Task: inverse folding
């Protein structure tokens, strides 16, 4: 803008000198036009800027690594010479943010990581066609796009570091449950036990109150546990890779028709959440909810919050693990 003003001043001086020494009708017309036309456009652009409104358009979903086609539609902006936008981009999952600047109404954003990407036009200015003056626009539209993890083969093995093996039998041998068709153990009555759990026949034979503990069925359902509670120094790269590994694990389990559940910690409410996954649609819906969380340090973890019983295996995916 400063460069345009300097050029305009030089032009006026040149036209003014030409008119003084020439004093002709044509030079007078050029001088008056050089003053009146820019002044009129400046006024009209200023007046238009007070009524301008933006609408930011982003696609609903993209895959990690793909560029995002972004467009800005301007209402009541036909008199504006050009507009400059400053956008604030925030990845809700990784917690990172950065600025993008553009003078075009259609452009691309190139995010590196998966997550919910929220884009806000944080600052914008409209300039007259000569670029002499600019005015700030109050409109700050916002939109978001879901950046899904990139689908890629992710070889993984069930190992002690990433898996908690509970039981491969039909009923757990180590934990009681609530299945009345199977008895887990017989023990003496303790205060607080429900009366309906008392085994009356054995109690009469032994002259002691005995309680029947019910069995816990162990299904072949695998729990893929994404540890969204992370150390503070964890990088966005590790956070994004964690989600990518979990996504591809689930994808491969779907292909092998293995029953599975996706679990994670809601880092805002500190509530454990889970969803059974049977197809790709359910997987994408669960990840859309998972990626809306901000992975951060919390007072608890998904590993501590989840119910570990009833699963044949638990695959814990953490940011920065070696298999990531």
Result:
């Amino acid at each position: 803008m400063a460069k345009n003003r300097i050029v305009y001043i030089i032009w006026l001086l040149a036209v003014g000198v030409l008119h003084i020494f020439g004093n002709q009708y044509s030079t007078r017309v050029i001088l008056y036009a050089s003053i009146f036309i820019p002044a009129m456009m400046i006024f009209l652009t200023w007046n238009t800027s007070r009524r301008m409104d933006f609408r930011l358009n982003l696609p609903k979903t993209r895959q990690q690594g793909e560029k995002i086609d972004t467009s800005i539609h301007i209402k009541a902006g036909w008199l504006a010479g050009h507009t400059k936008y400053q956008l604030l981009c925030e990845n809700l999952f990784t917690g990172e943010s950065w600025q993008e600047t553009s003078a075009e109404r259609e452009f691309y954003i190139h995010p590196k990581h998966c997550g919910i990407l929220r884009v806000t036009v944080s600052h914008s200015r409209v300039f007259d066609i000569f670029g002499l003056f600019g005015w700030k626009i109050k409109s700050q539209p916002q939109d978001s796009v879901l950046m899904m993890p990139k689908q890629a083969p992710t070889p993984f093995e069930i190992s002690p570091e990433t898996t908690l093996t509970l039981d491969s039998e039909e009923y757990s041998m180590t934990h009681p449950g609530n299945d009345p068709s199977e008895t887990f153990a017989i023990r003496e009555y303790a205060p607080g036990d429900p009366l309906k759990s008392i085994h009356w026949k054995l109690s009469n034979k032994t002259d002691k109150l005995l309680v029947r503990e019910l069995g816990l069925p162990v299904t072949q359902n695998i729990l893929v546990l994404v540890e969204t509670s992370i150390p503070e120094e964890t990088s966005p790269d590790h956070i994004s890779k964690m989600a990518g590994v979990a996504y591809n694990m689930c994808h491969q389990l779907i292909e092998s028709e293995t029953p599975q559940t996706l679990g994670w910690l809601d880092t805002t409410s500190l509530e454990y959440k889970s969803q059974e996954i049977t197809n790709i649609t359910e997987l994408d819906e669960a990840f859309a909810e998972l990626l809306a969380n901000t992975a951060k340090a919390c007072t608890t973890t998904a590993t501590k919050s989840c119910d570990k019983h009833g699963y044949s295996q638990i695959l814990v995916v953490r940011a920065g693990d070696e298999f990531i």
